[in-house]
From TrEMBL:
This is T-complex protein 1 subunit epsilon. InterPro entries: Chap_CCT_epsi, Chaperone_TCP-1, Chaperonin_TCP-1_CS, Cpn60/GroEL/TCP-1, GroEL-like_apical_dom_sf, GROEL-like_equatorial_sf, TCP-1-like_intermed_sf, TCP-1_chaperonin. SUPFAM superfamilies: GroEL apical domain-like, GroEL equatorial domain-like, GroEL-intermediate domain like. Belongs to the TCP-1 chaperonin family. One of its GO terms (molecular function) is ATP binding. It is found in: Cytoplasm. Keywords: ATP-binding, Chaperone, Cytoplasm, Nucleotide-binding. Its main location: cytoplasm. NCBIfam families: chap_CCT_epsi, thermosome_beta. One of its GO terms (cellular component) is chaperonin-containing T-complex.
Amino acid sequence: MQQMEISNHVAKLLVELSKSQDDEIGDGTTGVVVLAGAMLEQAADLIDKGIHPIRIADGYDQACDIAVAELDKISDTIEFSKEETSNLVKVARTSLGSKIVSKAHDQFANIAVDAVLSVADLERKDVDFELIKVDGKVGGSLEDTILVKGVIIDKDFSHPQMPSEVRDAKIAILTCAFEPPKPKTKHHLDITSVEEFKKLQTYEKEKFVEMIQQIKDTGANLAICQWGFDDEANHLLLQNKLPAVRWVGGPEIELIAIATNGRIVPRFEDLKAEKLGSAGIVREMTFGTTREKMLVIEECANTRAVTVFVRGSNKMLIDEAKRSLHDALCVVRNLVRDNRVVYGGGAAEIACSLAVEDAATKTAGLEQYAMRAFAEALDAIPMALAENSGLNPISTLAEVKSQQVKASASEKGKLGVDCMSRGSNNMKEAFVIDPLIGKKQQLQLATQLCRMVLKVNNVIVSGADENDF
């Protein structure tokens, strides 16, 4: 949606709505757009009947409050811990079921749960997404995707003759230039003879050797530098048996520092043994017959930094897998924050729709029309699910609604659309669940958008033809 070229102003608002849901919750972006579209469609019918937009907006607000309260009523809590993660895996699997990666959804669900729990603080109910890096490389299949308890960077050792593996690595993380110091004045040096050039060359070499020795004296056996160094310095590093990596980007440098418990060193004079990072193994990873290599830093001092390395047959598949994984990570993150859930398959929407319809009949005034319209808009989600599953949407919705009305209080909110034709539409038994905070956010964002659109009387675009709108 972000890449669509849209001229319609309401459509632009829907794209922004989807982005807000993605930024805040990470999943449920399609549902929020479907819901908002259905609510706007219902509102247009009410305006045609002569009901004022402000009365419709007020009715929608009342209906939204009732629906959110109903979600709280029908919600359940799911229990999990760092040892017992089966419930979290099932939730992540639900999120991945509708994505392109669904054929590997078991593997991706386990990766998402392991990644989130590695960086989560369960006591504070907090997850730092900055510590989860998702990277990808074309080649292999989706099943080759791995979770690395450490950092992967798209670099290799600076010299091909350097060892491809360093064990018990003590890492000097440098953001200063690996070169002889330059004068801070604007003077320039004139070299008029071969002897003077050789003297300068000798000085440069001495300085390089001095810098390399300074790194080795701290106990470091690997240097990671944000900047580059020339071939002479590279050769001297090889001679002095100090493996090095150059041109490592700023975000990667930060992740390496966090993962290895090292300190970033901005000046050579500040380099000390206590500022070194430590890792069990730093190795080069090769890919099939290609000459491409990546560097893997594993068994780090701080295991809270993790990297998901996605493989796939083409770039489009990898990008889609990354987006799917982002949704699964967000779902698990949301459950760490708040472990209350509602049931999917349209069950929660139908329960809210029935609650709003019931409240509408008890409401005096024109708002009851808007509340009924809100209830009909909520039905758009289960109808879309039924239609996409090859079922008759109207008869399926009517059947599930009647079942929910007749159901006991404990069963209400658990009966949805049987998309997989299992023979049972109890979503608790099928473990089709959504985090409560995501579902609440969907209702609130869609209602806010409708309220904003209903309050717009006219759109005037400077310099545009009046027939454009």
